[in-house]
Design brief:
- The radius of gyration is 19 Å and the shape is globular.
- The protein is about 80% helix and about 0% strand.
- The protein is mainly α.
């Protein structure tokens, strides 16, 4: 569902819009786990951290991109981005709250890729997209990169981390991912670096600290007050 709505949403809205709305996923993850697992309950500083980090993502992307006037197609694409983010967050919640949390990371990865392959292939067949594929070197290289690096290595690492650490803490680190995308855009594509991006990046890092190092933050605040 996540991959489907990302692909369809990108036909309607910009990549910057999709990046912002897709990375609502950690918010959905934290909220879902907060109500499902006592060990994942969020405290006040962590709530503030999530809000701050998400605000930083929005500022970094919205401030560094010139958005066109909103129309019905753009709004629909943005809605698809939110649905994709919801699906991504729901995946993390399901893994954490089911027997998959005890399964080997390789098995969890196999389930997701197998279902994704079958489902997306069926959708492509029904919608007539199979015949529209052009097997150019760039297309094949992109598929290999997505399959090996994105779908296999990164997902395998993610599911392994879910077995070792609190999912709500890990989810907030996902906020950093789109910032890397902008950074590579600056370094590789000579895209301008805006003040909004710098401020947004600092907000994200502060949010990550509030969520992941909440006991340490409290200790430092007590020292300042004392």
């Amino acid at each position: 569902v996540e991959f489907l709505f990302i692909a369809e949403g990108l036909k309607l809205t910009s990549a910057a819009h999709m990046s912002v709305f897709l990375y609502t996923a950690p918010v959905f993850t934290a909220l879902g786990l907060h109500f499902r697992l006592a060990s994942e309950r969020l405290r006040l500083l962590q709530w503030l951290g999530i809000l701050l980090a998400f605000g930083g993502i929005a500022m970094a992307f919205a401030g560094g991109t010139s958005f066109e006037d909103m129309d019905s197609r753009t709004l629909l694409g943005d809605a698809f981005g939110v649905i994709a983010g919801l699906a991504w967050g729901a995946t993390t919640v399901v893994v954490r709250c089911s027997r998959l949390s005890e399964a080997p990371a390789t098995l969890t990865l196999f389930y997701q890729l197998a279902v994704g392959f079958a489902g997306l292939l069926l959708i492509a067949l029904v919608s007539g997209q199979i015949g529209a594929v052009s097997l150019t070197p760039l297309a094949m290289g992109s598929v290999l990169f997505q399959g090996i690096v994105v779908s296999f290595i990164s997902y395998l690492t993610w599911f392994w981390l879910l077995r070792k650490y609190l999912a709500s803490n890990l989810a907030v680190f996902s906020f950093i991912t789109p910032l890397f995308g902008v950074t590579f855009g600056v370094l590789l594509l000579d895209e301008p670096l805006s003040a909004n991006f710098v401020v947004g990046a600092l907000m994200v890092l502060l949010g990550v600290i509030l969520v992941s190092a909440e006991p340490w933050v409290k200790q430092q605040l007590r020292r300042l007050v004392g």
